[in-house]
Amino acid sequence: MTKQANAGPGQVDDSPLTDSSRTDSSRTDSSRIDSSRTDSREPTIRLGSDQQQDWWAREHQHLNPDLVLCRHIDVDAPLEPDAFLEAVDNLIDRHEALRTSFVFSDGAVQQVIWPQADPGTAWIADFSDLPLPEARSQAEALVEAERLQVFRLDQPPLVRIGAIKVAADAFIVSIVLHHILADGWGLTVVVDDFEGLYGEACGRGEVSAAPAMQLSEWIEEERAFNASPEAAQELQYWQSKLEHTQPVRFPYDRPATPDVHFTFAVRQEVTAAGMRDAVDRRARKERATSSVVCMAALLKLLSVRLERPDVAAVTVFNRRGREDLRGLLACVTNAATIAVSLPEDAGARQWIRATRDSLLDAHANQRLFVSRVWDVADLGPGAVDVLFIYDGEWAPLTSFGGQPAHWHDYQAPRAYQRNGPWWENFKLRVGESGTALEITMEYNADLYEDATVEQLAAEYVSILTSFVEE
Questions:
Q1: What span, in angstroms and rounded, lies between the C-alpha atoms of 17 and 9?
Q2: Rounded-to-10 torsion of CA 5, 185, 65, 146
Q3: Which residues of the chain, if any, have pLDDT below 50?
Q4: How far apart are CA 71 and CA 37, in angstroms?
């Protein structure tokens, strides 16, 4: 099995790729940032709000493998190595975010956007001389090693893109980047652009137009707004809206101490067939969305469990509705605290419409990143310790570079730990699965018993069912 290192498109290193060389110091040794490159830096710029949150709030956790974004693709066609390496170089040139590292300067964290791609971004491994089952097993191990290979934020690159050849006519694409560079929607931008660039390098089509906005432009726009009178008015608005919001969480089964760890655990179940359509019908009846109906059921569950009328949950929303942001690779996702207060006898209509109105309020009136809103409302990370995400349904992948392909079915293990509290000790994800809904509860097993989460899942589905039947 051999490795090709991206010393330049088409240049091949045939040295054996052993486990030790796969994770050698060439990727993390500080000597990789040498003086000759220091002079070629572009000016440093301050971090965006999302990036500040990832660097500072998780300052001691930036080596945590959970803070990487991964995507793996099975391609049912021969690998074209030169085209692959060329596509990686072109992708890095296309997005400033992929040429970024982070340094301390003038007492603050700054980011440096390098003018050129860094060696080591791309790699190719070849297991095609092995029987296919063994080749795929070795590829799985390599994919996992890639996910666990930590990034040093001060040492680029913060992205690694590889191809694993498992047969003469099949290979796996592995894309791993640090979360500080982009949000989950940004990962889709990377995959889509790389797919087009690989196809273009192979002579099969053209890539879409270059992004209308780059990372540095987005951050400058965000900083200008943060210093504007409109931002000050927005802070006053949210201070008054959230000043009575009390800390909210499902009661812990174990005490939360300052040195608490986060041990990831998950419970997943699928509703009965037809639930997806039933939720959609109820949403249209209330002039809402399926996401709103599902979040309203979560808020009702919180109210029942806490025996109080005022509850809240955090949710994320996508700021990519603007045409010039759709191809941007950056952290442009925001989060909002959705707070409602309803009497004990409130019905489904009241819960759904109150949730809808609160969410619309956030979309219309919260441009500032959520951490600034929390600051003025005295709601630190963890105060509202329930996160809701509606995933929808992933579009099937059918081609990569003009060749047949599909999403690789590898699921990254997430049995990790991190120190200190965070606002994700309980997360509810709802995804579309055929005519059903897939309910996933991700939680901190150091705080919640499995049996408690199992009961919460059952109660949630029961409330959601009652909402669509009322």
A1: 19
A2: -20
A3: 1-41, 57-60, 415, 419-421
A4: 30
Taking the C-alpha atoms of residue 277 and residue 314, their distance in angstroms, rounded to an integer, is 25
Residue type, 224: A
Strand, coil or helix: 172: strand
Residue range 3-217 in CATH 3.30.559.10: yes
Place of tokens 């619309």: 360
Per domain, the residue ranges of the chain are 3-217, 229-385+421-469
User: What letter represents residue 324's amino acid?
Assistant: D
Closest C-alpha among 53, 401, 28 to residue 222:
53
Task: Check residue 6 and give its pLDDT.
Answer: 38
- Cα–Cα dist 270/257, whole Å: 34
Same fold, 3-217 and 229-385+421-469: yes
- Per-residue tokens: 317: 């929303």
Cβ atoms < 10 Å from Cβ of 318 = 12
53: Cβ–Cβ under 8 A, 6 or more apart, which residues?
369, 371
Determine the Cα angle at 30 with ends 27 and 34, to 5°.
Answer: 105
CATH architecture of 229-385+421-469: 2-Layer Sandwich (3.30)
Contacts of 233 (CB under 8 A, 6+ apart): none
Tokens for 448?
Answer: 């919640």
* pTM (predicted TM-score): 0.81
Q: Are 462 and 277 in contact, with CB atoms under 8 Å apart?
A: no
pLDDT of residue 64: 63
Tokens of 404: 């047949």
CB 84 within 8 A of CB 163: yes
Distance of CA 433 to the CA centre of its chain: 20
**Amino acid occupying residue 374:** W
Task: Single out the residue of 95, 90, 126, 117 nearest to residue 198, CA to CA.
Answer: 90
